[in-house]
């Protein structure tokens, strides 16, 4: 094992003695800093800050926490966008065109769920 360490140390010495390695390392560090400074890494596809987007979605989720998924809830969100958790729940049960048109009733949701459960058994 000591031979391996000695050989590895020798190879690193050979590598880091070359000027091109240090130049490349410097360029890579500068390029990384440049990309971080000017890019839109913290933005989603709508141009909204990811942290803000997550916080807003969390607030929407808390608004419906504990509420039954019934016609009153669907009527409440008729003109608003569904919170992420509700949208995911509905997407597992219903076709996407029905979710987009907001043509959803309690009977649709639980009827589809019942069909799905019966099919799996």
Description of the structure:
The mean pLDDT is 78. The protein is mainly α. The termini are far apart. It has seven helices and no strands.
Throw out a few tags for this protein.
121 residues, mainly alpha
Report the end-to-end length measured between terminal Cα atoms. Answer: 59 Å
Number of strands: 0
Helix content: over 70%
* Proportion of residues in β-strands: under 5%
The topology string of helices and strands comes to HHHHHHH
Based on Cα principal axes, name the global outline. elongated
Helices, by number, come to: 7
The overall average pLDDT, rounded, is 78
Structural class: mainly alpha
The biggest sheet amounts to: none
| Radius of gyration from the alpha-carbon trace, in angstroms | 27 Å
Low-confidence parts: none
Secondary structure topology:
Elements lengths: L1 H15 L2 H20 L11 H15 L6 H6 L7 H10 L2 H5 L5 H15 L1
Brief account:
The protein is an all-alpha fold. The protein contains 7 helices and no strands. The protein is 71% helix and 0% strand.
């Amino acid at each position: 094992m000591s031979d391996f360490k000695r050989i590895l140390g020798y190879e690193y010495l050979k590598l880091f003695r070359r000027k091109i390695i240090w130049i490349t390392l410097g360029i890579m560090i500068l390029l990384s800093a440049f990309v971080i400074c000017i890019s839109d890494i913290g933005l989603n596809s709508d141009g909204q800050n990811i942290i803000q987007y997550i916080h807003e979605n969390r607030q929407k989720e808390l608004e419906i926490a504990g509420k039954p998924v019934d016609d009153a809830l669907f009527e409440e969100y008729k003109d608003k966008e569904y919170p992420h958790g509700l949208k995911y729940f509905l997407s597992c049960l219903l076709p996407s065109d029905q979710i987009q048109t907001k043509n959803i009733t309690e009977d649709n949701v639980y009827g589809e769920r019942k069909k799905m459960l019966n099919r799996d058994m």
